[in-house]
Write a structure and sequence with these properties.
The chain has 125 residues and is mainly β. Helices cover 0% and strands 46% of the residues. The chain has strands spanning 3-7, 10-12, 18-25, 34-39, 45-51, 57-59, 67-72, 77-82, 91-97, 115-116, 120-124. The strands form two sheets. Strands 2, 4, 5, 6, 9, 10 and 11 form a seven-stranded mixed β-sheet that branches. The chain has a four-stranded antiparallel β-sheet with strand order 1-3-8-7, with no helix packed on it. A hairpin with a 4-residue loop joins strand 7 (67-72) and strand 8 (77-82). The termini are far apart. The relative contact order is 0.32.
């Protein structure tokens, strides 16, 4: 089975940093477009960043310059380094696999991503 498991969320003060991890299993991680999304308390889902099979990254304006998406193909792990966190970054964060090859369509749409993790909560306060 294809599975994604996030970790690394928590409570952090404004201006602080967190690194989220997402371990993938059940498919060829290195060949797939991966993305990070978040969903706030109003259930508004936002696509934050994508990384394609060649390592090309793209970011939403809301996180550009503060967040960085990376991956380690040897460990089947996706990361999201989050710096200069703001209270408005408070949300449930999800990693997702597009499931249609290595190219990431942008902007990322939830409907284009077939596999999702269970989410990890980030609270900035």
């Amino acid at each position: 089975d294809v599975q994604l498991v996030e970790s690394g969320g928590g409570l952090v003060q404004p201006g602080g940093s967190l690194t989220l991890s997402c371990v993938a299993s059940g498919y060829t991680f290195s060949s797939e477009c991966m993305g990070w999304f978040r969903e706030n308390a109003k259930k508004e889902r936002e696509g934050l960043a994508t990384i394609d099979s060649d390592g090309i990254t793209r970011y939403a304006d809301s996180v550009k310059g503060r967040f960085a998406v990376t991956k380690d193909n040897a460990k089947n792990t996706l990361y999201l380094q989050m710096n200069s966190l703001k209270p408005e970054d408070t949300a449930m964060y999800y990693c997702a696999a597009q499931g249609s090859g290595g190219y990431c369509y942008y902007p990322p749409r939830s409907a284009d991503f077939k596999t999702w993790g269970q989410g990890t909560q980030v609270t900035v306060s």
